[in-house]
Amino acid sequence: MSARILVIEDNQANLELMVYLLQQQGGHEVFTATDGIEGLAAAEKEQPALILCDVRMPNMDGYEFVRCSKADLALKHIPVVAVTASVMADEQQKIEQAGFDGYFTKPIDPESFVHATEQFLSVSTGD
Q1: Superfamily (CATH H level) for 4-122
Q2: Boundaries of each Response regulatory domain copy (predicted)?
Q3: Comparing C-alpha atoms, which of 18, 11, 71, 1 is closest to residue 43?
Q4: DSSP letter (8 states) at residue 5
Q5: How far is CA 51 from the centre of its chain?
Q6: What ranges do the domains of the chain cover?
Q7: What confidence score (pLDDT) does residue 80 get?
Q8: Which of 35, 52, 80, 113 could lock 59 by a disulfide, CB 3.0 to 4.6 Å apart?
Q9: What separation in angstroms does the CA of 94 have from each of 46, 86, 91, 108, 111?
Q10: Which one-letter DSSP state was computed for residue 58?
């Protein structure tokens, strides 16, 4: 099942790795942005099936991005998954309370990343 996925990440190496894995292992169509402002514009234009969003970014962080996307009628149905280096319990709770549909911790595991990502796709499409 190929899907349109938006990856919002300001670290170039992390961005390239996620895009590569999603395209090569998953066969997905991937769009990118490097901050939340670009991410909102890309989400509105591309209408992806899933958004993977870094939590700490310049200009608009992931928390503000998810608040804006969930408040937008055209975007609120799209699952948004946080990608974060922090795995502390208080950060996990903050991610859930902010409106993210789940999270991945950095560094991502190339062996399981695509499969784990596709679990969010099956939930969003009802498969």
Answers
A1: Response regulator (3.40.50.2300)
A2: 4-121
A3: 71
A4: E
A5: 4
A6: 4-122
A7: 98
A8: 35
A9: 28, 11, 5, 20, 27
A10: S
